[in-house]
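TA notes, week 10

Several of you asked for a full example with nothing omitted. So below is the full record: structure tokens for the whole chain, then the designed sequence directly under it. When grading your own attempts, check the secondary structure regions first.
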């Protein structure tokens, strides 16, 4: 191919070309001069920040014929051979496609051989986190104690996927995202040498769209150069290539929201979508726009950290008008909408609804300054009149009503359906009660297994106290638990169905709080004749003692 992409042509060949990573390059240069080269390095960081480029530069520097040097000369045979890939002793491996144990074993077997044409044999393993566990284990011993003529340089974008046993054997360098100012400076250097003109604002748009990656920035710049109709890259070209929204559109949209002009806001949105802007990208630009506005309000000197805004008179004027609490609400609302848009096939609708909501957000939550001044004047006037009255000997008594706290509303208590309970007691027998008690623990387990653990918790301190052939009375320790259980129709139906599965009978249940049970039982006994079927039988002493030892849940009574 006759043409090469900018990021390939302008790949860094010296440490000074690696922008934004001075903390890495300076350390490596000092190690080269002091001849303290480690046997293994780990370069981690986001994509396009110079990890692989720094690895190749380090490989050239250690093998340069003029070593020890801070920078490779790029003129000797070793430097030129490593640059064009003709030196077999500098091996670049893509771990994404060579991630098996066999490939790593092949490396392990070959490291013992001395290099052919240079001083050090350098293995550059890119995307090392893609190696399998078996491959990492095969590399472990070789990485810890390689021959003196071997250097390993591992590069990754996801260091958290690398075993700690590997990381601990390497010198780790974390590459950070490159600041927009550094990206712009590098692009200007390239444009000056290629004699291509580009608007400075267009470079700012490209740098911010690159999100800290130099390779992404150069790819976008390359695309913008190809897109431009002439030899100069304009702001519109950069906006089109990056998919970003022009600041004038965002400012007009922000002004429409502030003025609660729904019609204008929707019209601006329609225009943006008509020229092909993505709703998801648009809402992201709006979030960053208001974020930059908030930073500008805090300190205008933070303009270097702005993501989407270039400060101009229109933006400065709008930022002064916007109250900070409204910006918080706007960012929160836009962020919520952005999350919802990820899971819909109609993001435009969500964006339109969000704009309508934002336009109806209150622009001020405080009293206006004019109202405050009026109130101050009235207070001052009243104070003067009060002083005059006191000077005339007139006593001023307070006519304010005493602060009477309203009595708390009486707590609604649970009303037991005494009639239904008496009907159960009329037909209750000891055999029916023991049948319910024997299966009560199993019923609680089945209830908890049906995703009703919170409902089952209401029954933890409850106890069946009377039962007939098809119904039973459940005593609750706390009245609130009784009320919550008996007012939950689904809960009662579930208990009935479970009891039917266990006992073969769809029992109905009536709840009674413990503090009311004694009174209801005694009232029933007082109204019954001796032939009444409810059996008030004294409990067997052995059973009573067993109940004290193990509790009702583990006690099973058999005749």
């Amino acid at each position: 191919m006759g043409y090469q992409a900018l990021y390939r042509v302008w790949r860094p060949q010296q440490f000074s070309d690696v922008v934004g990573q001075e903390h890495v390059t300076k350390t490596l240069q000092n190690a080269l001069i002091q001849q303290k080269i480690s046997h293994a390095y780990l370069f981690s960081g986001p994509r396009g920040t110079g990890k692989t480029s720094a690895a190749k530069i380090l490989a050239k520097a250690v093998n340069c014929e003029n070593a020890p040097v801070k920078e490779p000369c790029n003129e000797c045979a070793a430097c030129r051979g490593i640059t064009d890939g003709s030196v077999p002793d500098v091996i670049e491996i893509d771990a994404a496609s060579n991630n098996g144990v066999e490939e790593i074993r092949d490396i392990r077997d070959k490291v013992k051989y001395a290099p052919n044409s240079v001083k050090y044999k350098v293995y550059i393993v890119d995307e090392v986190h893609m190696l399998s566990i078996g491959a990492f284990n095969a590399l472990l011993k070789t990485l810890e104690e390689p021959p003196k003529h071997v250097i390993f340089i591992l590069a990754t974008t996801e260091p958290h996927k690398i075993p700690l046993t590997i990381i601990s054997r390497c010198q780790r360098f974390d590459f950070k995202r490159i600041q927009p100012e550094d990206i712009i400076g590098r692009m200007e250097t390239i444009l000056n040498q290629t004699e291509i003109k580009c608007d400075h604002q267009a470079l700012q748009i490209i740098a911010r769209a690159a999100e800290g990656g130099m390779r992404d920035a150069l790819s976008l710049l390359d695309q913008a150069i190809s897109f431009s109709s002439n030899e100069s890259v304009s702001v519109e070209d950069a906006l089109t290539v990056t998919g970003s929204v022009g600041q004038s559109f965002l400012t007009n949209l922000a002004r429409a929201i502030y003025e609660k002009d729904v019609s204008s806001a929707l019209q601006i949105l329609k225009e943006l979508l008509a020229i092909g802007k993505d709703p998801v990208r648009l809402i992201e630009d709006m979030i960053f726009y208001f974020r930059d506005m908030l930073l500008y309000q805090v300190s205008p000197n933070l303009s270097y950290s702005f993501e989407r805004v270039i400060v101009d008179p229109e933006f400065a004027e709008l930022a002064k008008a916007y109250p900070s609490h409204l910006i918080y609400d706007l960012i929160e609302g836009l962020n919520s909408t952005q999350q919802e848009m990820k899971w819909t096939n109609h993001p435009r609708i969500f964006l339109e609804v969000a704009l309508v909501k934002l336009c109806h957000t209150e622009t001020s939550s405080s009293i206006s300054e004019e109202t405050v001044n009026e109130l101050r004047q009235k207070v001052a006037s009243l104070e003067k009149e009060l002083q005059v009255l006191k000077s005339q000997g007139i006593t001023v008594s307070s006519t304010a009503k005493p602060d009477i706290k309203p009595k708390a509303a009486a707590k609604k208590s649970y009303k037991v359906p005494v009639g239904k309970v008496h009907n159960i007691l009329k037909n209750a027998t000891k055999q029916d009660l023991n049948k319910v008690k024997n299966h009560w623990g199993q019923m609680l387990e089945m209830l908890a297994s049906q995703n009703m653990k919170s409902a089952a918790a209401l029954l933890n301190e409850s106890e069946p106290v009377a039962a007939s052939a098809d119904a039973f009375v459940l005593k609750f320790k706390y009245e609130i638990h009784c009320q919550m259980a008996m007012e939950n129709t689904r809960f009662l139906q579930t208990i009935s169905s479970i009891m039917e599965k266990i006992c073969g009978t769809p029992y109905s249940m009536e709840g009674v709080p413990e503090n009311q049970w004694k009174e209801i039982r005694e009232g029933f006994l007082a109204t019954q004749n001796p032939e009444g079927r409810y059996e008030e039988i004294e409990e067997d002493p052995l059973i009573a003692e067993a109940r004290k030892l193990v509790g009702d849940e583990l006690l099973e009574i058999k005749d």
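The CA atoms of residues 418 and 520 lie 7 Å apart. Use that as a sanity check on your answer.
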